[in-house]
Amino acid sequence: MTQDVTRTSQKDEARLIQRDVLKLAIPSILAGITIPLVGMADTAVAGRLGSAAHIAAIALGSTMFDWLYWNLSFLRTGTSGLSAQAFGRGDFRHAVRLFTQSVLLALGLSLIILLIQKPFAKLFFLITPCSQETMQLALEYFMIRVWAAPAALSLFSI
After folding, report:
1. What CA–CA distance (Å, rounded) separates 47 from 58?
2. Do residues 102 and 86 lie in contact, with contact meaning Cβ atoms separated by under 8 Å?
3. Given its phi and psi angles, is residue 50 left (phi above 0), alpha (psi -120 to 50 degrees) or beta?
4. Three-class SS string for the chain?
5. How do residues 21-69 score in pLDDT, each as one tens digit?
């Protein structure tokens, strides 16, 4: 009888832990899918323009952001791990400091991205063959969307 009560208690505790983990994981999962979703939405819109070059340009432009943002994904993984530890300790002051540092780092890295956007694009198109029309469209797409880097990288921190 006591074993049944113990098992039930352990199952309830496991369910509570799973629920707490989901509460923390769902925002991180949603943040992780936002970058590809923007590219997918842009591709859907470009498909209405009637030219394969537009769709190819969106694909290339999205790939450029994948390269940039993938290399900066440590903002998401590092911040979430350290924040989870601070939260688990109940050290909310440290959690706020981690958040502030992460957002400031994201903004600093965004500034660097904005400063290197043209050399980065040149390098990208040196190693990525495409038609002149597609390159021009992809470059235009990249040069517009790159200004969202501060928001995108800050979202990694959040």
Report:
1. 10
2. no
3. left
4. CHHHHHHHHHHHHHHHHHHHHHHHHHHHHHHHHHHHHHHHHHHHHHHCCCCHHHHHHHHHHHHHHHHHHHHCCHHHHHHHHHHHHHHHHCCHHHHHHHHHHHHHHHHHHHHHHHHHHHHHHHHHHHHCCCCHHHHHHHHHHHHHHHHHHHHHHHHHHC
5. 777 777 767 766 766 777 677 777 766 766 788 888 888 888 898 888 8
Tell me the CA distances in angstroms from 109 to 49, 117, 147, one per residue in order.
Answer: 34, 12, 12
| Angstrom distance (rounded) from CA 75 to CA 138 | 26
Please name the amino acid found at residue 142.
F
Confidence grade of residue 126 (pLDDT, cut at 50, 70, 90) = very high
Question: 82: burial class by Cβ within 10 Å (0-12, 13-18, 19+)?
Answer: middle
Report the distance separating Cα 37 and Cα 111, nearest Å: 23
Structure tokens at 105: 């780092």
Angle, CA 71 vertex, CA 65 and CA 76 arms, to 5°: 100
User: Radius of gyration of the chain from Cα atoms?
Assistant: 21
